[in-house]
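In these records, each integer encodes one residue's backbone shape. Here is one protein:

___
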Amino acid sequence: MFSRPRLSRETLSRRSLLRGAAGVSVALPLLDAMGVRACSEETADRPEPGRTADGAPKRAVFCMWGLGLNGRDFTPQTEGPDFETTPILAPLERRRGDFTVVSGLKLTHSGGHGGDRTFLTGTATHEAGSELRISCDQELAAVVGRDTRYRSLVLGVKRGTGFGQPQDHTLSWTKSGTPLPAENRPHVLFDQLFRPDSVESVAAREAAFARRSSVLDSVLEDARDLHHALGAGDRAKLDEYLTGVRDLEVAMQEQKSWLHRPKPEVDPIDFGSDQGLDPSKSGLDYRRYQRLMFDVITLALQTDSTRVVSYMPRMDNSDGTGAWKSEGNPYGYHTMTHHGEDPDKLKWFTRSDVLYMQEWAYFLDKLKSVKEGEGTLLDHCLVTWGSTGGTINAHNNHHLPAILCGGAAAGIRHRGHLVQEDRRLGDLWETVFKAMDVPTPADFQGGEADGPIADLLA
């Protein structure tokens, strides 16, 4: 039998179950007691860490748009909440008050072609022998993602990791410096999040977990025996490798703990034909694809299936999107960044950026349309549009374009256009951590951060 909790002390989890004597579990419907206001008056003004004052969980979305943009038509000339909008920012005008353009940020490393690996790590580059380190989305997910089915979602316009290629397909790295593969198919992501598992698929996954556990146990046992026979340098390398194995083991155990818990029930999405839904295949309708990705991300956040998302909707160098050839653009995005003052390339550079920003406006509208607590889903999410390509020139590592959106209920105070000349991109990520009530980890961004941006915090 289900025991009723005392609402003055606790709230019902959205994943609470009715457990019958025969071992049958049935998911409860969404009850008021599961709502974001189900807390006592005595605790209403003292939200628990990682939650807003109305009890909703705080979330973070990190999006990197490769190769920057045309800074001439992006960066406002005036500061403050009443900044004069620009052609590229015009699609966001209806959301004025829900975002801040942060100008002047820089990275010590990268800029342009290799920025994917640097965006959330601060230091790791594509140079041979560079030290690979954890990305800040994974540091955040380790703290705020413990109660969700997926600690984080790793997404991109290309699938996998791309490791060893000129550009990565992922923004996310584990603490052992291992890239996490990105998913790029919205219909596959939807099934992963919401399609109920069959009895057969659960049994198959249980068997797979057992096999993997057996393999990991044997690997660790052999590694312990080998460790004593190695020199100091090799022991350090082996320890680093074993850290990755342990990370895998922990992730596997977390996945296993969710195996028999019902997934959230949501209205189905009409994905239509698979054709055009996989950017790895020909025939991509980028606008349709991008909006479906944003639809699924919104559902994932709304159902508390995850609280952290990293997403690379446009890559460095070979952008993966087609750069709006469907709209008549004769140039690839990388080609437009090398415009050489060609007026036609400059025209399409800005027009393409406007079209991409229209998709970003769609995402913000989607988050804003979801009512949650006393506000909206956007109010409870810190959503970042960013790039490692500078606005003066797309291959610079300074004057990086960045827009922090949402988060009003999480303590973000929007400034319209805020100039932070010569500050590090890591300072923006540290601001997100501060608003999420997560302590800044040791060696954050490998030292490429100097503290949160106080002007953005209420």
